[in-house]
């Protein structure tokens, strides 16, 4: 973009001012740190024999002495105050199954496990006496064993009842241990001192935005495009409803499903919410927009959190993408994107972007919830992920003040076309908040 020489000097001075005021942010946000550790190895021992070291299921059967062995490498910050083993049932049955500490050898792996190197059966950590149902994830408290970082073995052994099988890491759902600490983790966004919480939409039936009525009171299902299809997307956004806007006790799940005819352009319904009010940092104000959410990992999924004009007089091409994730031949859920559009986009004064399009920090964003933040002061944007400032941009908004949109698109433009296994796709929202000062 070409600029006049005088504007270059002005931009430089603005940049210096921005750096001096915006980069002196003291990150003080603290919360419990939750880390998911997937099984590094898992296998079934039938008596003294290893069966199916690369099988997709592992078995527990008290009558046949079938035991499932799992190994985890746990690393979390601070003192671990909670540790939970999660395993998905594949073949159900009525049984009492115990999770035991595996003692002794921790160097075993699923291909070399044998009668003479298997961990010894230690103390009972937790048990489930129930009718296990296929497709359900069951949780065992393993804190008595896992109370610090290290390598651990857990043995699932039948106490009574019939055979039950669970998914291995080669199966549909990797077994995992979720640990929580009370130590301050890396900060979750910039310091909010001095800001007023203007809007708090904590989603879920047990929280303040707890029904479809509450959702409808604050949000519309459509943005400026209405029901018009944009970007050649395959989904069709629906009025706020229980299928595409599914409320759990603690989340709102924007859900895409192929219930309008099938997996083709127009055969897919999905959910979107847009604020009924608009926002612009007039009169020296600064806004902070935050969304804590977990993105889907599905072919063709395109979740987004962004600002756009609601239309009307003076409509503009200005657009702020706080975050979006594409599924293309070159981008996936490892690649954060936060692009800005319009004539008012100037230079980045700070950036840790991997290239001009994405930030690739090396982890899969779909594995967990993350906090996506925009700080907007007139002439300036900052985009954060959790406690990391990703980029700061000199920016001018043109046209009417924008509304905030959160949506789950499927397919479209360079995105991969969805397939049958793409559905249902769920964009899970914990909360959306707006701060101002």
TrEMBL record:
Key words of the record: Secreted, Signal
Signal peptide: which range, if any? 1-25
Any idea where the GH16 domain is? 179-437
The compartments listed are: Secreted
Chief subcellular location: secreted
- A Pfam family per the record: CBM96
Protein name from the UniProt record: Family 16 glycosylhydrolase
Q: Which species is this UniProt entry from?
A: Paenibacillus lignilyticus
